[in-house]
Each structure stands twice: as structure tokens, then as C-alpha cells.
Amino acid sequence: MKGPIVRITPNELHIKDASFYDEIYAGSGRIRNKDERFVKTFSAPHAMVSITDHAYHRVRRGLLGEFFSQRSVIKMEPIINGAIEKLSQRLHEACQTGAVINMDAAFAAMTADVITRHAWGQSGNYLDHGNFNKQWKDAMAGTMASRVLFRHFPYMLHILMAVPLPILLKLDPGVADILKIEGLVRRLSVENVNRGIVEKQEGKTIFDALNNVSVPPEQRTAKHLIDEGHILLLAGTETTAKALSTCLCYLLLAENKNVLLALQSELRQAFPNVSTWPKWTEAQKLPYLVC
């Protein structure tokens, strides 16, 4: 098998050609429906990520667009800075005692605290856990990894869902941590539904927008919010946390010492006052951070 395009299943192509990116991820003017078999692996049929119809997905995505805009990021700076400060304090304490920190778990805890606050208006407080609730992070990673298997063997997902919970807990104790995720998302989502239809615009959260009066009643049920919550928590945590872990590992490698020194020098010159939080808009102007 040669060439940049290989058929890996009767209905799937594997494409290794960067120039084809815009053809697959087309702009708003071109219709692209998702493969129904692919989205089933998310086990969240009411979430936006599982919507296969292009037009319907665009409508749902429009409800959340403002929450991930540059303006929204600027408004979130105090929340993000607070989480960073809490993590920095934990790292300082570990430095004083000589404790070992799992940075994968630490970054996941920080990003989880930010996304839960942004989505529901209250933090999950993962940074307060002694080990940053590492078992939750491991359970989340296991959930993500299993989707690759379920994608090719979808019947296994149905079998797993049919296994009684007590048996699942004996076969895999990590299921208990997954259930904790389920419980947190369900509690926060149901609380949002019970507050009733949201009409206030200022200071609203992501789930206030999903429960807004402008959203059709059949799209703001508890099932919709719970499924959306699962995807937001998983995606909003793992993506940023993994990027931070990868960057940290790269910077700390001995052969990249000059890279770390260059970054530190640039930051010190741009933000000499360590007692003042740098603005995101200012950090974006630094050549090394945007190269």
C-alpha cells in the first residue's frame, strides 16, 4: 500500500496529506455530515459532538461559540489565574518537602477546575486533592482509550453497558472513578435544569446558555445537559492538560536547555514584576510563544 490515501475499511480512508485538510474540515459554506458509526463511540447521543447533521450541529455550536471567543478568554483570566496560583502553591509546597508531583495529574486537575467553573459556575476543586485526584485522571484516560476499541468493535460497548454494576466494579475497580465523573456531571447538570429556564445574559455559564429560553424545550432536557457535560469535561480537561505536559517535558529535556533559557529570558523581559499577573493579550505578543 503506497501513497498518501489508503482505504482502511470499506467506508473509511486514511489520508496523510496536509493539503487535504481544508477539503475534510470544510468551512461553513460547505456541508459535511459526520459518520454515525463514529459518533456512537462517544456514548453521549444527546451531546453536540454526536450530532451527525451539518445544519443541526451548526445551530448547537452557535450556542457555545461566544464562550470560546477571545473576549470570553479575557473574561476568564481571573478564573484561570486562580487555578494557576493554586497549582503553583502546591508545587512550592512539594519543593519544600521534596515530594514528587505527577504533572500529568496536576495539569488535569487545574484544567478540570477551570472547565467546571466555566461550564457550571462552580469548580470541581480537583486541585484540593492530595494526589490531584489522579485516579480520576486515569479513569478519564481509560475512557478515551476505550473508544478506539469500541469504534471498531461497537458490539462490545453494548455488552459492557449491559453488565451489572457490581460485576463491573469487581472486574475493574477503576469503574468507580468513572462513576464519580458521572455523578459530578449529573449533579451539576440536574441542578442547572432545576433552576429553570435562564433569561439573564450577563455572567451566564455554558450550561446557562444551553438552558436558555431561546433553546427548544426538547433540546434542554437533563439528558442533553448530562451528555454535553461529559464531553465538555473530558475534552476541556485532557486537551489542555496533555499540551501542557508535553511542553513541560520538552522544556526540561537536557538537550533543550537553550530553549528553556530563551523562554525564561523572554518572559522576564516582558514581565519583570513577578507580583503582577501578565495579561493573555500581552503574552500573545511574545515572539517565542507564537512562533
From TrEMBL:
Alphabetized UniProt keyword annotations: Heme, Iron, Metal-binding, Monooxygenase, Oxidoreductase
Gene3D superfamilies: Cytochrome P450
Cofactor: heme
One GO BP annotation of this record: mycotoxin biosynthetic process
GO molecular function, one term: iron ion binding
Domain of life: Eukaryota
SUPFAM superfamilies, per the entry: Cytochrome P450
InterPro entries according to UniProt: Cyt_P450, Cyt_P450_sf, Cytochrome_P450_monoxygenase
Entry keyword annotation includes Nucleotidyltransferase: no
Pfam families (UniProt xref): p450 (PF00067)
Similarity annotation: Belongs to the cytochrome P450 family.
Record-given protein name: Uncharacterized protein
Organism of derivation: Penicillium crustosum
